[in-house]
Amino acid sequence: GVIAVLAQGACERDTAVVTAAVLVAGNSVALVGAAAGETLRAAFVAAGVPAGAIEPFGAPATAGLLREAGLAGVCVVADGAAGRARQVQRALADRDGAILPLVGGAEAQRADMLWRLCVEQTLTINTAAAGGNAELLAGAGLAAAQISPA
User: Fold this and answer.
1) Cα–Cα distance measured from residue 66 to residue 80, given in angstroms and rounded to the nearest whole number
2) What are phi and psi of 109, to 5 degrees?
């Protein structure tokens, strides 16, 4: 998915680490309000990251990005930005669609918390609609019959 990294007021190091974490988790980055956004993007591209994986935006784009249907989550980089995080929480709660994660900058920088930047997916099989016999549908009955000595 696309994770919006809100970097207004954050230092370049923290922004770079959070951007790397979002990329490692398999996402693209909408880098918002980073003073050195183009410089960071160029550095990541020079290191081999595809150019389209990071897109810098100015701070005024925040409200529009938070309403985007394709958004998978938001990360607020600057620590101590509790007021900013509350505004983002409210904007995410007001939007239609899926509930999106809001990840703090310190949390995103911890390797054991990278799971917060991943999108959960679920596969459900309605066996009742297909006849109700899950083993038969999965081919388990056929495999068991072939193995059985009888």
Assistant:
1) 21
2) -85, -5
- The reported pLDDT for the residue numbered 114 is 80
Regions in the chain scoring below 70 on pLDDT: 79-82, 119-123, 125-150
Q: How far apart are CA 12 and CA 48, in angstroms?
A: 19
> The whole model's pTM is what?
0.74
Can you tell me the distance from the alpha carbon of 22 to that of 4, in angstroms, rounded to the nearest whole number?
Answer: 9
How do residues 18-42 score in pLDDT, each as one tens digit? Answer: 999 999 999 999 999 888 899 999 9
Q: In what order do the strands lie in the sheet with 28-32?
A: 54-57, 28-32, 2-6, 71-76, 102-104
For the residues of 2-49, what is the DSSP string, one character each?
A: EEEEE-TT--HHHHHHHHHHHHHTT-EEEEES-TTHHHHHHHHHHTT-
The counts of H helices and E strands in the chain are 7, 5
